[in-house]
Amino acid sequence: MIFLDSLMGIIGFVMGIQIGLFLGFLWFIHLQSRDSKKVILKAFNKLDSSSLVDFIHELPLWVMSPDYERVDWLNKFVEDLWPHLDKAGSKILKASAESAFAEYIGKYNIKSIGFRGFTLGTLPPKIHGLKAQESNENEIVMDLEFRWAGNSDIVVAIEVLCIKLEVQIVDIQMSAAMRIILKPFVPTFPCFCVAAVSLMEKPKIDFGIKVIGADIMSIPGLYHAVQEIVARQVAKLYLWPQSFDLAVLDET
Predict the structure, then answer these.
(1) Rounded (10°) angle between helices 72-101 and 12-45
(2) pLDDT tens digit string along 213-252?
(3) Is 56 helix (H, G, I), strand (E, B) or coil?
(4) Residues 198 and 150 in one domain
(5) Are 164 and 114 in contact (CB under 8 A)?
(6) Which domain holds residue 231?
(7) 97 & 196 share domain
(8) C-alpha to C-alpha distance for 169 and 210, rounded to whole angstroms
(9) Less CB within 10 Å around the terminal CB: N or C of the chain?
(10) Shared-domain flag, residues 108 and 6
């Protein structure tokens, strides 16, 4: 349950051209975002109250709040980079979970516990709105809405007494409001040492669990109980001001 647990130009005339093109592109994105927001809100106003209740939770945050920006360019970046982010993220999460697993070996008659397989899948997360917060001169603070409906496949092998079990965690879905703080600044690319990630509220988490190929989440009453326990445990670990700190550079 702890699984639950990332550019510069040239100088002179060339830099001026590149910066000009880049700013023009950002302005175009801004205009497109604003026009898209108007279209969505126009259609939104035509819904009756019953349809509104069902639809409102599916709207991205940039539609609901003027403070949040639409970031299609960032989602495209994440999508293209996802095969590599999957490997890097899986490695980090796997190492973090294995260190926690080590505390349970020898307890509760557990002889061994480890991963038989670990992949976040081929479907990347989506950022549904981003807002830069006011911060001090030595950090950048960003709030964002994060949604992920993935096809992950995580297999945990457990040996209890003489029984060997494989627990498969599949199809993780998550929705959360997050805060990312990049700090402190240093004169070495990428110019910050730590990316601190916190949750701003209890996340919504959904997933499937299979034991010996059987879906145990189909047991009446178990599904909602497990989802709630996992969401609470994740919130206890990473609810702001607590954070998951990812070291990027050595501060020294």
Answers:
(1) 90
(2) 777 877 777 888 888 888 888 888 888 888 888 888 876 5
(3) helix
(4) yes
(5) no
(6) 66-247
(7) yes
(8) 7
(9) C
(10) no
CA proximity to 148, closest of 169, 176, 167: 176
Question: Which segments of the chain are extended strands (E)?
Answer: 110-119, 126-133, 140-149, 153-160, 163-185, 192-199, 204-211, 214-215, 244-247
Within 8 A by CB and 6+ apart from 174, the residues are: 125, 146, 147, 148, 203, 204, 205, 206
**Same domain assignment for residues 104 and 212:** yes
34-85 pLDDT tens trace: 544 555 555 555 555 454 445 445 556 555 556 778 888 889 999 999 999 8
User: Could you tell me the pLDDT band of residue 30, with boundaries at 50, 70 and 90?
Assistant: very low
The answer to the question of residue 198 being in a domain is yes
Q: Is residue 58 in some structural domain?
A: no
Same domain, 35 and 95: no
Q: Is the same domain home to 121 and 203?
A: yes
Neighbouring-strand partners of residue 204 = 175
- Confirm whether 56 is domain-assigned: no
pTM: 0.64
Burial of 199 (0-12, 13-18, 19+ CB in 10 A): buried
For 236, residues 6+ apart whose C-beta sits below 8 A from its C-beta are none
Residue 61 burial (CB count, 10 A): 21
Length of the chain measured in residues:
252
Query: Do 14 and 89 fall into the same domain?
Result: no
